[in-house]
Amino acid sequence: MTTGRRRFLLRAGAGAGAALVLSGCQKVLETAPVRDLALSLDDFTMRSQRLVTDRKALAREYAPSQMSPFFRPNGSRTVDRPEYQRMLANGFADFRLTVGGLVQRSLQLSLAELMELPARTQITRHDCVEGWSAIGQWTGTPLKLLMDIAGVDRSKARYLLFQCADEIGGVPYYETIDLVEALHPQTILAWRMNGQMLPEMYGAPLRLRVERQLGYKHAKFVMGIEAIADYRTIRGGKGGYWEDSADYEWWAGI
Ligand SMILES: Nc1nc2c(c(=O)[nH]1)N[C@H]1C(S)=C(S)[C@@H](COP(=O)(O)O)O[C@H]1N2
Ligand SMILES: [Mo]
């Protein structure tokens, strides 16, 4: 490795450095070849973080006494759609989570079916990019279990796409994570929070907990999951609502 490249690697590995490089180039980013370069920089940030951190490492878990007395809700707190409000009023009895894309078996699972599967409970800290944190307890279905049941095609699928029920300014919220993150033991689709069924403002009926990533990756109001080969062909091409609309980095590892 050349010294220049090593120096860049150190900078990219620091995360904030890469963000600075990117934000300084906003105008140049409009052209496709340069945008591709920026996307590969994002990939590069991820790979260099992978060199210095263990992607299998567990996020810290906390004791019940450390839970925040108030967990701040953020982003969409409600879903302003009649179909959603009908399901909410009905305790999500008619809700079906769809799992599809690059899987051997597409699934349609009710909340009751999900709740019958082995679940995991964890008390973790949520870190929002806006600069606040909160510690809460989450119970849900390990995503790995769902991927095993659906038979995710590991030779083709590289990412999972989470489709959410809410829209911000008319644009549907969505997120993508890679399979390493998806299959991590603490990555769950939570249906319980702080000992209660997940309230609407925290993303009922299901919200993603992907504990080693910043808050915006934790998709709330999840209606469907799709295993995909690449997020660059989807919607704005940057892999998530905030990535598309405010240039948040796709890789939000903490
Ligand atoms: N569907 C959906 N998911 C979302 C958001 C949103 O607006 N819509 N906001 C994100 C952001 S920025 C954060 S910090 C967390 C907030 O989760 P909370 O409401 O449980 O605190 O949800 C994330 N997931
Ligand atoms: Mo956030």
From TrEMBL:
The name this protein goes by in its record: Molybdopterin-dependent oxidoreductase
Q: InterPro entries annotated for this entry?
A: OxRdtase_Mopterin-bd_dom, OxRdtase_Mopterin-bd_sf, TAT_signal
Positions of transmembrane segments: none
Q: Which residues form the Oxidoreductase molybdopterin-binding domain?
A: 93-229
Q: Name one Pfam family in it.
A: Oxidored_molyb
Matching Gene3D superfamilies, A to Z? Answer: Oxidoreductase, molybdopterin-binding domain
